[in-house]
Design goal:
Two copies of one chain form a homodimer.
Chain A: H1 7-23, E1 28-29, H2 31-38, H3 42-50, E2 62-63, H4 64-74, E3 81-86, H5 90-96, H6 99-103, E4 106-113, E5 122-123, E6 128-132, H7 136-142, E7 147-150, H8 154-166, E8 171-174, E9 186-189, H9 192-218
Parallel strand pairs in A: 3-4, 3-7, 4-6, 7-8, 8-9
Antiparallel strand pairs in A: 1-2, 5-6
Helix pairs in contact in A: 1-4, 2-3
Chain A binds a DNA duplex through helix 3.
DNA sequence: TAGATTGTTAATCGATTAACAATC
DNA sequence: TAGATTGTTAATCGATTAACAATC
């Protein structure tokens, strides 16, 4: 059965929402409540979940503890993922210090960098070692790393991605502003520059609309 | 005329591609060439552009210099946007050091933070001042800041967003893992935690498919 | 003119939503 | 049983794509 593309991100949103409902002491929820919190239609939430099974009880709703576990299975965060970050710069450091990721099953356990002055150092509040990029393949295998984060300049991104895939990584989170077309690996892009431009595009469109409606009032 | 939602991000991709074609010394391009580079259908590119005007010449293609300017108009990056970052942590610093943004019309000119030990300091390679969050409204007005970046914990994100909007900011780039529902402002989310989970979801789906196809071969 | 590539229409595809029977 | 809410079907909506006339 074909699952619509946007579902992957929404499942993650549902999980976040379920966690916060649980932290409020609640025990059950409904597609309506989730929909209100996430600004989504209840029918969309039910549909999304229905691709994977039946997680609720008719007349009652969803048991939060149960739904949380089901979502964690779907998102594959019922295990711990070993993660490396290639590029020991600011973004990499920011990620390494982001405690939330640890709680959610992502363990950042290695940095890789070209810069000799960084190699051998430890980074962030968790003191994560920086290895030479030369050692990447070896270390990725030894440390059982399954996810690689690309935080290098775009000129190096393709090379790094290929190295990661060759060493057996299953997924790549790509912060470099390039479209990587690579087989045998799942890629997720986080493109901050594009987000900035999408934002100013939307501001621009809105201002044009506002001007137009002002003109209409003039007539 | 209704413009499909995904167009905003694609326009930004076209712009990036046009810039890099120009830097390769090219002078014209075609929807086909752009499509190949971006893994998009040529007809999609032509359609996207057609919402806003006619930027090409039949039989010839698009003049790169001209197309670049047109895209910059559409994305509203034909001007300089003053930007502030609320939350002087790792992500904020990473953004402040990211030289690309400057080149593209985004000038990060202020940080705001709660932490007294940070207030008055200067951050990053550009030495951007950190002000108290108490001063936010005043400073945003004085410095003509039109875009606010939210890089605070999610518990504070809503408050910060409201302060930004009250001080007249037109757009918000939100790094906090919450859905902000606020009027009179354009919001763009960058949700790294969700991207991680979408990634492992996709890896999980792929592994299930692989197992299934192996089983089929067994029959 | 012949070849190329646009801009645009119409067809297709994919995602969302409403509606409702099933059932707790 | 009456009320609530699910899971699912079918209808709607929105986005993409193919096809082609227009034109450089």
């Amino acid at each position: 059965m074909k699952v619509p593309n946007p579902v992957s991100k929404r499942l993650a949103l549902y999980h976040r929402c379920v966690v916060s409902l649980l932290s409020e002491g609640k025990e059950v929820t409904s597609s309506q409540e989730l929909g209100e919190r996430l600004a989504l239609k209840p029918s969309q939430i039910r549909k999304d979940l229905s691709y994977f099974g039946e997680f609720g009880k008719r007349g009652t709703g969803y048991e939060l503890k149960e739904l949380k576990l089901s979502l964690e299975n779907l998102l594959s965060i019922n295990k711990t993922w070993n993660v490396c970050i290639v590029g020991a710069g600011n973004i990499g450091t920011a990620l390494a210090n982001h405690t939330e990721f640890f709680k959610e099953g992502y363990r950042i356990i290695a940095f890789f960098d070209r810069n000799p002055s960084k190699i051998g150092k430890k980074i962030g509040t968790r003191s994560i070692s920086v290895y030479s990029i030369e050692e990447l393949k070896e270390k990725v295998r030894d440390l059982n790393i399954e996810i690689g984060v690309i935080a290098v300049p775009s000129s190096e991104a393709r090379n790094v991605a290929e190295m990661l895939v060759e060493s057996g990584v299953k997924g790549i989170l790509n912060f470099a502003p390039v479209k990587l077309k690579i087989e045998n690996v799942e890629i997720e892009d986080v493109d901050i520059a594009i987000s900035f431009k999408a934002l100013t595009f939307k501001i621009g469109v809105k201002e044009i609309e506002r001007k137009r409606s002002v003109n209409k009032q003039d007539c």
